[in-house]
Amino acid sequence: MDELWTATKMLSPNESVGLQAENFLYAPSLFMNAFLKIINACLMHSFLPNDMLEVNIILIIKKKGLDVNNSSNYRPIAIATTASKIVEHLILHKYGDKIRAGSWEFGYKKKLGTELGVFALKSIVYHYNNNNCKVYAFFLDASKAFDNVVHGKLFLKLYKKGIPVVVIKLFYYWCKTQRFRINWGNGRSREFSVQKSVRQEGVLSPYLFNFYMDDLGKQLSLSNLGCKVGCTATNNIWYADDLCFLAPSIYALQKLIDMCANYMLEHNINFNAKKTVCMLFTVGKKSVIDYPVLWLYNTSLVWDTSFNYLGFNIATGKKHNDHLEIEKRLREIRVGSNMLATRFSKTSELVKVSIFRTYFSTLYCLGLWIPGTAKMNNSAKVALNNCYRKLFGIRNMVSMSELFVNHGLVTWGAMRRRAAYSLLTRVTDNSNVIIQALYYCNSFHLNPIFKEICSVLY
Length: 458
Prior knowledge:
Strands 3, 8, 9, 10, 11 and 14 form a six-stranded mixed beta sheet that branches. This protein is globular. Strand 15 (306-309) and strand 16 form a beta hairpin. It has helices at 2-9, 21-25, 29-45, 82-95, 114-130, 151-160, 165-177, 205-221, 250-266, 323-343, 349-360, 374-392, 400-406, 412-428, 433-440, 448-457, and strands at 54-61, 74-79, 135-143, 179-184, 187-188, 228-229, 232-233, 236-239, 242-247, 270-271, 277-281, 295-296, 299-300, 302-303, 306-309, 312-315. It contains 16 helices and 16 strands.
């Protein structure tokens, strides 16, 4: 019963089919006892009621400005029943450790995430560049990866990992009998089933996909190819279906790509050619770089000098600064300030403070920023202050720090210190093998990220 209450408390207040999360969170004990008996009976008989298996799919445009008449520009989001989400939370709580991916996976783990994934990538490159060695990088984006998971291969992997047969049989019934409907405006499609995939936005879906691809990470790490920090293999970094391979030689990188291609072919995973690129992080500045040819299947890969990895702009160059990423975030601040000033100009001061705190209390991956120059850092401070001026109608030549403090808002300097301290504490107190190898290596004190953190905090 305790596990059921724990799983219920983990529910998010998102929209669900049928009963909502609040109906279970505030349900009486008599109802929860009956629901627990239903779940146990479902496990014993590998069966789930039809009402629990209903899934509605809504389509969301991936990015503004894309062609709304092209189906590939939409992201399908599956909205399941609250009861099925509770069952998924129970299974994850009970067997989550058995299906957890290796150290190369930075997604859906405590004290990890996109910021630590980008930190690992940049730190590995800095480590090799500081030792006068170039790094070849390969960024792979799997095309509709969650939709291409083959159920039979997934169930076999679960069985070999020691997941009880009753749970696997429940998964099998769940996948084969689950019915989907697509919501479009006020209309709904007919019911249909799917023969493969783990649905988007499912509680277990990202964990099952990471587990489905985990054997590839093991093969790459044990291949003795690509980048290493000390004795730790750092040749592949993952965040769900966003993969990054790193190698100090073109031969090693091509071998890693070939291993990936074979695994993807065996497991029915396709790649997105538009989001798959290679990069070369060189030592020193070269005016002309002769890029070698790399192949994925029969497709020659594209080389680029910058790439948006996990939402962060990674750029090559001698100077380890993030001017492209910072400029992008500053544009977002300016656009956001104009939008907020237009829409909320007549609201009360209390509402404006709340809105400003919601939109600008932090910036994505701020702890990783290396401005390069004091001018770039000052530009970010000015952009934030101007945003405040526009929203509150404050004239120039007024102390912004005092106004920020009076309203209980975080100034630019405090925001940077908080982000830097947060990143440093997660790096120093982290059980991930790759993060530990980077932190304890001899060249960590030469890491530009660490130097920038020290200059911000001390």
